[in-house]
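anyone seen this seq b4? input:
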Amino acid sequence: MPADRQPSAESTGRGAPDPSGGEGARRARRAALLFLVLVAAAVANCLSASLVFCLQGKFKQKPGPIKARVSGRLERNERGRFRIEGIEVAIEMSDDASAIQHFDRCAGQFEDFCIVTESIRRGIPVKVKVTDATGKLVHQGG
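predicted toks r here
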């Protein structure tokens, strides 16, 4: 194969493209952002499901809808490779937490039962906060 037609890391699917710039770097960034979105969504979904399961399944409460917002930081390491540097999840409840029986118990344990979050935390910092309908911060973890 001529020297100018050698397969590149992105064309063969092996390794990461050179982070110095160009189309390969743009593709690498898009791929890294997609991965960040998937990981962050999995963390937010797992935390939300864990909180709802604790309230509904374990303590037979009927909380209203919740909303989860997630953000993540994507940065390059010392070798120029993209890495997820942190994830932050904000869960907003539609109820006043003080009106939900056993809320304090669920707030104290729902993160521990989230398989995704606890697995991700082994390598990526994850911060969690829960606010109730009044806007009061009722739980903070991570």
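The CA atoms of residues 113 and 130 lie 16 Å apart. The helical segments are 9-12, 22-58, 103-109, 115-120. kinda curious what u guys think
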